[in-house]
Write a structure and sequence with these properties.
The protein is of the alpha/beta class and 288 residues long. The chain folds into 2 domains: 202 residues, Rossmann fold, CATH 3.40.50; 65 residues, no CATH class. Helix content is 42%, strand content 10%. The chain contains 12 helices and 9 strands. It has a 7-stranded mixed sheet with strand order 5-4-3-6-9-7-8, covered by helices on one side. A two-stranded antiparallel sheet has the order 1-2. α9 packs across α10 and α10 crosses α11. It is globular, with a radius of gyration of 21 Å. The termini are far apart.
C-alpha cells in the first residue's frame, strides 16, 4: 500500500482501484490547507513523525507543536530537540504532580483528565493535523474520522470522504470555539507507518528499540498494568514522584472531608497499577 507501484496516481487513487495511502494523505493535506497554515500536533512518536514528513512532502505551511506533560520520557525530549529543532514546546501551568492533588484522584483509563489538560488543549481556533489512526483502538475506529469539524464540541461533524463538495463545505465551516482536525493517516496500519519511516530513512526515538510499543506519558494507565510496571522499572524516580503526588492527594481529600480508603501513597500506587478502575466511580465520585 505504501510502495511505488509504477502506476499513475490521481488524488491518491491508482489504476485498478488500488489506493496509494501516501499520495492519498498528501492530497488530503494539500486540499484542505488553511491560509494561516496547519497546527501539527507533534508528540515525537512514529505517527506524528509521519504527519510531519507528509506535510513537508505536501509543501504546505505548518508549525509543529509539542505539549510538555512533565511526565515525558527524557529520551523522547532529547530526540525531538535534536531531530526536530523547529518544533514549538508548550509547558503547562500545572505539572502532573500538581494536577493529581487538584483533581483528587489518579488519572485512569476512564477519567483521563491529564490528556485533556496536558495534551489536547492546543490548536484552538486552528486546523489541526494529528497522527490518530483507526487501528489503534476500537474507540478510535468508532469515534474518529478523516476530518472532524469543531472537534470536542456538540457541533462536531465527522467526514471520511473528500469530494469537491465536502472540501468546499469544510473550507466554509466556521470554527466554534474549538478546532477542526485532519487525521491524514487515519486508515494506516502500524506496519504501514513503519514502512513509511524506513522508506523515508527517518530517525526515530530509540525507545522503540527498547521494548516500548507507544511513546507517551510515563505511567499512563492506557499502557495497562504490565506496561506501567515496565515503564516504572526504567524510570523509578517517576514512580516515586507519583507516590508523593498521591500522598498530597490523600491529604487534600481528607481536608475536604471526602471518603478515602488509603493511608499512604504506596497503597494508591498498588491500587492504580493493579487496574482497580472498575471501582473508581464509586470511590471518587460518590458524595463529591
Amino acid at each position: 500500500m505504501l510502495v511505488d507501484y509504477g502506476l499513475k496516481s490521481k488524488n491518491g487513487i491508482l489504476q485498478f482501484g488500488i489506493v496509494d495511502k501516501v499520495q492519498e494523505a498528501i492530497s488530503h493535506i494539500r486540499a484542505l490547507e488553511p491560509p494561516e497554515g496547519y497546527y501539527v500536533a507533534f508528540s515525537g512518536g512514529k505517527d506524528s513523525q509521519c504527519i510531519y514528513e507528509l506535510c513537508k512532502i505536501a509543501g504546505v505551511k505548518f508549525e509543529a507543536h509539542y505539549n510538555v506533560t512533565t511526565v515525558d520520557p527524557p529520551e523522547l525530549i532529547y530526540f525531538i530537540r535534536e531531530n526536530y529543532p523547529d518544533v514549538i514546546f508548550h509547558r503547562p501551568k500545572l505539572t502532573m504532580w500538581q494536577l493529581i492533588p487538584k483533581k483528587l484522584m489518579p488519572p485512569t483509563r476512564i477519567v483521563r483528565y491529564c490528556c485533556e489538560y496536558l495534551k489536547e488543549h492546543g490548536g484552538v481556533g486552528r486546523f489541526v493535523i494529528t497522527g490518530v489512526r483507526w487501528a489503534e483502538s476500537v474507540k478510535r475506529k468508532n469515534n474518529r474520522a478523516l476530518v472532524e469539524l469543531n472537534a470536542y464540541t456538540k457541533h462536531k461533524i465527522m467526514i471520511n470522504e473528500l469530494t469537491s463538495e465536502t472540501i468546499e463545505f469544510i473550507k466554509q465551516a466556521e470554527i466554534k470555539s474549538s478546532k477542526h482536525i485532519l487525521n491524514p493517516i487515519i486508515n494506516w496500519t502500524k506496519q504501514e507507518v513503519w514502512d513509511f519511516i524506513r522508506q523515508r530513512n527517518l530517525k526515530y526515538c530509540k525507545l522503540y528499540d527498547c521494548g516500548f510499543n507507544r511513546l507517551g506519558c510515563i505511567g499512563c494507565p492506557m499502557s495497562g498494568p504490565m506496561g506501567m510496571e515496565f515503564e516504572f522499572a526504567r524510570y523509578p524516580k517517576f514512580e516515586q514522584a507519583y507516590i508523593r503526588a498521591f500522598e498530597r492527594m490523600i491529604k487534600e481529600r481528607k481536608k475536604r472531608g471526602l471518603e478515602t480508603k488509603w493511608l499512604t501513597g504506596e497503597e494508591v500506587m498498588e491500587w492504580w497499577m493493579g487496574g482497580g478502575v472498575q471501582e473508581e466511580r464509586e470511590l471518587f465520585f460518590k458524595g463529591e
